[in-house]
Write a structure and sequence with these properties.
This protein has about 270 residues and is an alpha/beta fold. It is built from ten helices and ten strands. Helix content is about 35%, strand content about 25%. It is globular, with a radius of gyration of 19 Å. Bound molecules: adenosine-5'-triphosphate. It comes from Leucobacter chromiiresistens.
Length: about 270
């Protein structure tokens, strides 16, 4: 794909990082290098503790205080994040990066109706916040009865609905890089495919890059161009999805593929469910 030959939107080179806690030092990333092209859908897979969340937080320069980068650099749209001041980092985050949360209900303010949250998030972006525009926004993420949903509090919506709202808020900013850390982990199997379809549709439409952290190799096979396999903080294998999953080269990838059975392909692709 020609888009993938252009300058990377994310470039991680030789990145090492460690957590320092009272219990000691944990090496979380070990010399990780990774380029992601505009429009590319990249899955980062690996067992728990392999460094997936740490790498995604490093890309957004959102690492917890206890985590220190000990070597390497992260470039986002050509800019070295470490060389930027806090205001500029916030600007890159706001203008170029979108995060889709793992727990969408927790990402919403429990004390505010959905409508108010949308208004507060969209107004600073100069986006319209009148009732018709908000209804249209919710329809774009396939929320049925949007007028009713606008009046609800977060505890009154399902996890799938909350994730649609989170996606609507994220894609309204039209980020060029979307980071999704297990965006369907807290959802019922039934709504997972719909949520992933929404994310992928946005990426395809906008030409954004997607970094998708996932344990779901069946879904990764279905949607992603490339798979990056992490183990103990290092990348052990990276390549086109079908090649990595069907003919893994690294011993660890073979174990991973054998241990996590792929989900059956969704039989109801395209079918809209409530
Ligand atoms: N806040 C923290 N304090 C101390 N160590 C941490 C912290 N967060 C992560 N680690 C350690 O860093 C390493 C990488 O963790 P990370 O969360 O990046 O892995 P992961 O692949 O995202 O795991 P999971 O799939 O469970 O989310 C692990 O050894 C983990 O125990």
């Amino acid at each position: 794909m020609t888009a993938h030959e252009s300058a990377p939107s994310v470039s991680v080179s030789g990145l090492s990082a460690e957590y320092r806690t009272r219990l000691g030092v944990t090496r979380a990333l070990d010399d990780v290098s990774l380029d992601i092209a505009p429009g590319e859908l990249v899955a980062v897979v690996g067992e728990s503790g392999s460094g997936k969340t740490t790498i995604s937080q490093a890309i957004g320069r959102m690492l917890p205080r206890s985590c220190r980068i000990t070597a390497g650099e992260v470039r986002v749209l050509g800019r070295d994040l470490a060389s930027l001041g806090p205001d500029e980092v916030r600007r890159v985050r706001r203008e170029s990066l979108g995060f889709i949360p793992q727990d969408p209900i927790a990402s919403l303010n429990p004390t505010m109706r959905i409508r108010r949250q949308l208004e507060l998030a969209l107004a600073p972006l100069g986006r319209p916040t009148d009732a018709d525009s908000l209804v249209e926004l919710l329809r774009s993420v396939r929320i049925l009865e949007p007028e009713r949903v606008l009046r609800l509090f977060p505890h009154e919506v399902s996890g799938g609905m909350a994730q649609r709202i989170a996606i609507a808020l994220t894609i309204a900013r039209e980020p060029s890089i979307l980071i999704a850390d297990e965006p369907t982990a807290s959802l019922d199997a039934q709504v997972r495919d719909e949520i992933l379809e929404l994310i992928v549709a946005f990426v395809r439409r906008s030409g954004a890059s997607l970094i998708w952290i996932s344990h779901d190799l069946g879904a990764v096979r279905r949607w992603c161009d490339r798979v990056v396999v992490m183990h103990r903080g290092a990348i052990v294998e990276s390549g086109p999805t079908a090649r990595v999953l069907d003919a893994p080269e690294a011993k660890y990838t073979r174990t991973l593929v054998a241990a996590i059975p792929a989900r059956p392909r969704a039989s109801r692709e395209g079918e809209e469910r409530a």
